Amino acid sequence: MQTKPFRIGTRGSPLALAQAHETRTRLMVAHGLPEAMFEIVVLSTKGDRITDRSLALIGGKGLFTEEIEAQLSSGELDFAVHSSKDMPTKLPEGLHLSAFLPREDIRDAFIGRTAKRLLDLPQGATVGSASLRRQALIRRLRPDLDVIVFRGQVDTRLGKLASGEADATLLAYAGLKRLGKLDVATEILDPVSFPPAPAQGAICIESRIGDERIDGLLSAIDDRPTRAAVSCERGFLATLDGSCRTPIAGYAEVDGEHLRFRGMILTPDGSQFHEIETSGAISNAGRLGEEAGETIRARAGADFFASWG
Ligand SMILES: NCc1[nH]cc(CCC(=O)O)c1CC(=O)O
């Protein structure tokens, strides 16, 4: 019988803390354990410290996870809670994603200061986003808009918007919901025309491979449909790139044992894009995503990928 508290690693952003608390609550309920059995350990990551530059320029994925993963590997943490969207497709040796919480809404939210909808923005309006996917999707639908880089935590971005640095911004519905700020959203974007990032809206738990005590603890809160959908989306991402330096979008929807995936890749200026749709058994989810990536890559051709630099 475990008596020492489990040590849960997380970043210190309000969103990360909300995700860690949600995970702890689910574990307490699933196992009838008191809160004192879970210690939330807050770590600062490179991605949290660098706020003045686009993350795509400094190294993309892994920025929010490296410090936490080092402490997982060394045994100082028992497991860590992350946004699946921020996880590199290749994890460090010895670590795996051992559980997924039931997914939140996958869609992006539009937050307009004056116009309430993306398509209602006046010509030449500015939209702030640091995400290459969102930038490319905006340019595809509205090549006349001026897309500017907007970084930082959700509150920072909303502050920049309020102070007039842009006319609108985009954020994940899931993040706003977890922060209790859904009311700022003025439009929820349609995932067919504005597909989310692979793994958006899904909280995952990372832990050591072969740690049976932790696997046992976490299996009680693992959501199978979310695991299948995220595996498929991450398969697509991994085949195409796996960094966050590229405009890649896609989402899977699970219905019983069946899954349907839609993916999109774009040139950064949004002038060209390719879409793919596929479906199959959830038992084959990761492979379905990889195959979709291979197919869309062949279809797009080398010239298209030159735009990704
Ligand atoms: N890159 C930051 C990040 N990572 C996860 C989320 C939102 C929550 C989620 O997708 O699970 C966000 C903020 C955003 O995109 O608005």
Order of helices and strands: EHEHHHEEEEHEHEHEEHHEEEH
Query: What's the oligomerization state?
Result: single chain
Summarize model confidence as the mean pLDDT. Answer: 94
Low-confidence stretches: none
Q: Characterize the biggest β-sheet.
A: 5 strands, mixed
- By CATH, the architecture of the largest domain is named 3-Layer(aba) Sandwich
Beta-strand content: 15-25%
Question: Number of helical runs?
Answer: 10
Tell me the span between the first and last alpha carbons. 53 Å
What is the helical fraction, as a range of percent? 25-40%
Cα-atom radius of gyration: 19 Å
CATH fold assignment of the largest domain: D-Maltodextrin-Binding Protein, domain 2
Number of domains: 3
Looking at CATH, the homologous superfamily of the largest domain is: Periplasmic binding protein-like II
Indicate the structural class: alpha/beta
Name the hetero compounds present.
Answer: ligand PBG
What is the spatial order of strands in the main beta sheet? 2-1-3-10-4
Count the E strands: 13
CATH class of the largest domain: Alpha Beta
